[in-house]
Amino acid sequence: MPIIIPKDIPAFKTLAGENIFVMSQKRAASQDIRPIEIAIVNLMPTKIVTETQLMRLLSNSPLQINVTLISTESYTGKNTPLEHLKRFYKPFSEIRNRKFDGMIVTGAPVETIDFEEVKYWPELENIFEFAKTNVTSTIFICWGAQAALYHYYGIRKRLLDKKLFGVYGHKKLVEYEQLLKGLDDVFFMPHSRHTTIDEDAVQGVDGLELLASSDKAGAAILKSADNRFFFITGHAEYDRETLLYEYERDLAKGMKIEKPENYIGADGKVNMSWASTANLLYVNWLNYYVYQITPFDIEMVK
Questions:
Q1: Residue among 37, 111, 237, 246 flagged as catalytic
Q2: Catalytic-residue membership of 235
Q3: What angle do CA 100, 207, 283 make, to 5 degrees?
Q4: Per-domain boundaries in the chain
Q5: Domain 3-300 belongs to what topology?
Q6: How far does Cα 154 stand from its chain's mean position?
Q7: How far is residue 176 from each of residues 95, 137, 173, 228, 236, measured CA to CA in Å?
Q8: What is the pLDDT of residues 141-151, one digit of tens each?
Q9: What is the structure's pLDDT at 2?
């Protein structure tokens, strides 16, 4: 089944060119079916890239999915054309009374700043509270995961000695967890961050379960006991070239940065070892924790 997005958003042409089934909103409106409503709170500076990455993963399921892109009102980034934001994004104040089957909150390049010092922190806390009552299930990514863990459970982040940057192996810790269904015992996922959360702090919190961990990257995938919240500290959604782009960007800025680990092979080409992980994570989430749980009448979400 297709993902429903505006025909003139850049992701439409990109995904259609990859033979992904995308459908315009006009055509979807003529079909007698209720699509799954997914909100994406996009905090990344490269919003067009990130929205395309997430839409690509959401499209790889048998469900018809309608995506609503959400931006913060208290802060507007400089890396995305204002025209794009006005045309395709909605401010949180405009959707705060709506219900969603699922929501994704992305990462953001503000890891080294205290949470309360982030310009849009009060607004983000409102979004976190909104997720508790208006969304069936939510995925939080990277800094978004750290911020949500802090908001919901008081778990603090810790500054790393150097940037965690590369692709790392992760071990499944829960054998029959549905989110991890189909993943190998050891699976791979990119990370790109300056901070981490301690597994000891996670283990001491009631109502929070660690699903996967990495010797190098630490706590990687967690979920709340009620299955409403999933916290992914890496970037399974990244494209093949994303880490390379980040590396070259930081070099151009004169920053001290090492090449991403376990990423470029001996032949000098990128080794993409996480594509199946990304697809399984999002297909499993959509199936087991959104579609199978959310009420048919979306207004009954609570």
A1: 237
A2: yes
A3: 45
A4: 3-300
A5: Rossmann fold (3.40.50)
A6: 21
A7: 35, 19, 9, 18, 20
A8: 999 999 999 99
A9: 52
